[in-house]
Amino acid sequence: MVEKFHKELENLKKEVIEMGNLAKEMLFNAVEALKNRDV
User: What is the pTM of this model?
Assistant: First the structure.
């Protein structure tokens, strides 16, 4: 039971990191579009 909890927690951590990376990439692309007036 405890082992399953830790495994699920690790998977959740990986998903949160991936979501953060996607958000960072989207923000970067939005700023680049504004800089290049490609809106």
Answer: 0.73
